[in-house]
What does this fold into?
Amino acid sequence: MPLSKIAGIGYYVPANVFTNKDLEKYMDTNDEWIQERTGIKERRYADRLGETTTTMGVEAAKIAIERAGITPLDIDFIIFATICPDYYFPGCGVLLQRAMKMKEIGALDVRNQCSGFVYALSVADQFIRSGMYKNILVVGSEKHSFGLDFSTRGRNVSVIFGDGAGAVVLQPAAKEGQGILSTHLHSDGESAEILAMYNPGTHANHWLPEKLADFDDKEIGELFISHAMIDKAQLFPNMDGPAVFKKAVVKFPEVITEALMKNGLTPADLKMLIPHQANLRIAQFVQQKLKLNDDQVYNNIQKFGNTTAASIPIALCEAWEQGKIKEGDLVCLAAFGSGFTWASALIRW
Ligand SMILES: CC(C)(COP(=O)(O)OP(=O)(O)OC[C@H]1O[C@@H](n2cnc3c(N)ncnc32)[C@H](O)[C@@H]1OP(=O)(O)O)[C@@H](O)C(=O)NCCC(=O)NCCS
It folds into this structure.
């Protein structure tokens, strides 16, 4: 049974550059704090009214499809990973199918936050290996800038995230041993609320600790979105940054090592590690732990911030465009994020 390979890859980031200095106009923060704690210098923000998570995904997909040497009509399945969907429902997959005038193919949305792209890739990999599909489009795209708290109250979250999209086309590999060697998926929901956006949702306070449980208005129809939620800024993401950091630095190396061991390989065999761009300090910690050289790890969080499901395909595409990944190279993708969920994919390019 052939493995699946990445036959085409593309990314899109909006033109609008938002520097740390720009953020100072909205909240009490500064360039030094942001760079020292996260490595981020700037990020891109989508055109507020002209671009959506789906339209950015379409731009990335166009490039990936063209580089795979096919057309949108050849795509036989779509997997779209995002936490910033255009609509609560339906998902971005069908909006992309419409926008790209594709056939009436299946479209699946994946909501796995920062590990969304690796999860999506893993699902696509199984469909290719089983012979069910021949050309799967996998997209990771996020328009975070539309849903962040740009006041000082939200600064620990807002400074980290940026907008952008990445996409790949997966096909059966023609050469023996080429392609996705294995994927590894994990979750631990114990700390689901540590990095989460609770509202709007159907939780009805069920899961929330007392200090966070906060429905004032119990009239029917007002539990999903209420005026109180807006007044108390409860429609924004929440994050306990230090708790996320502590878990990430354990799970990243673990899931990378798992992928290497499964294939009888070691960190020294890696040409390139593409870590999800969560925080430069996390990536540096992982690099040290695995004893990788600087040229074995690709980081671009400095330019784009954390683009959640889009960060890995954007970084992978950049590294490939810069000639840092060539045929036969061993590449590891690894992600960790809200859920918590974490995942890796080992690829013989
Ligand atoms: C978010 C993160 C950068 C914060 O760094 P930290 O060193 O842990 O900082 P803390 O949260 O302990 O906050 C330290 C201080 O900085 C302040 N602060 C928070 N955000 C700030 C900002 N943007 N600008 C200036 N000060 C800020 C805090 O209020 C706190 O002030 P205090 O000491 O007066 O209470 C860091 O925890 C992190 O990156 N965690 C992982 C997050 C992540 O990767 N999330 C994505 C998941 S994939």
